[in-house]
């Protein structure tokens, strides 16, 4: 199976999904369309027990949402919604898949990229991995599940600190916080994840799905929180306080490979200097 920018291979119950969206693996229309196609297949798949997500890009697992698209959102008082936004809905579909989902992270995952990771079951990272939620410095909030899922992964205080500072989190700190489950040397990461995936893929498919359902039930549903998150995002984008900050971000090199691999702290600081 190949779903646009998501290239897949299957072996012994393990589906490996490689993300490749030149020039820098942005979470935009191409990724969402590919994900929709993949979900349509996986939700009716009776052979796959484990799904492994990797990136073909050495610098980015997934970058973040398309800032230019966010700037194009309409201003003004929004009509409240009673269901989560499109990205949040489909990331939640990923979380509810009956198979185990694992990320092998070698590079940066910020914003929507980090939110996609939070919807997966397990996250293994190389020391080069960087996670972050830069939305608040941009004048919005993590609106695809980040504000709802990070408190479950990190705890309330750590989630608030990470989200409200917008800072980058290294792989080792992410491990301490519970944002990733292991940090593995770059040249061992794929083999480590593959070994885990193949071990779980030997388990009965019905047992994997049942364990996920019970664990999720024990932690409580996120449905109401996802709707609230979507409404808060609409309120913030409607108010327009994000426009100057996001324009500054793009002007200084945000959403480029050079800017986000070498000057992300500088970009965040420039947005923080914008008048509130």
Keywords summarizing the entry:
276 residues; alpha/beta; 2-enoyl-CoA Hydratase, Chain A, domain 1; 4-stranded mixed sheet; 14 helices; 51% helix
Describe the model.
With 276 residues, this protein is α/β, with parallel strands linked by helices. It has a single domain (2-201, 219-272), classed as 2-enoyl-CoA Hydratase, Chain A, domain 1, CATH 3.90.226.10. Helices cover 51% and strands 16% of the residues. It contains 14 helices and eleven strands. The strands form two sheets. A seven-stranded mixed beta sheet has the order 1-2-3-4-6-8-11, sandwiched between helices. The chain has a four-stranded mixed beta sheet with strand order 5-7-9-10. α4 (112-119) crosses α6 and α6 packs across α7. The chain is globular. The model has no long low-confidence stretch (mean pLDDT 95).
Structure summarized in a few sentences:
This protein has 276 residues and is α/β, with parallel strands linked by helices.
Order of helices and strands: EEEHEEHHEEHEEHHHEHEHHHHHH
The major beta sheet can be summarized as:
7 strands, mixed
Order of strands across the main sheet:
1-2-3-4-6-8-11
CATH class: Alpha Beta
List unreliable stretches of 5+ residues: none
How large is the count of helical segments?
14
Fraction of residues in H or I helices: 40-55%
State the end-to-end CA separation.
Answer: 47 Å
Number of strands: 11
Q: Measured on Cα atoms, how large is the radius of gyration?
A: 18 Å
Identify the CATH homologous superfamily.
Answer: 2-enoyl-CoA Hydratase, Chain A, domain 1
Query: Looking at CATH, which topology would you report?
Result: 2-enoyl-CoA Hydratase, Chain A, domain 1
Q: Strand pairing plus helix content: what structural class? A: alpha/beta
Overall pLDDT? 95
CATH architectural group: Alpha-Beta Complex
**Hey, roughly how much beta strand do the residues contain?**
15-25%
- Tally the structural domains: 1
Shape: globular
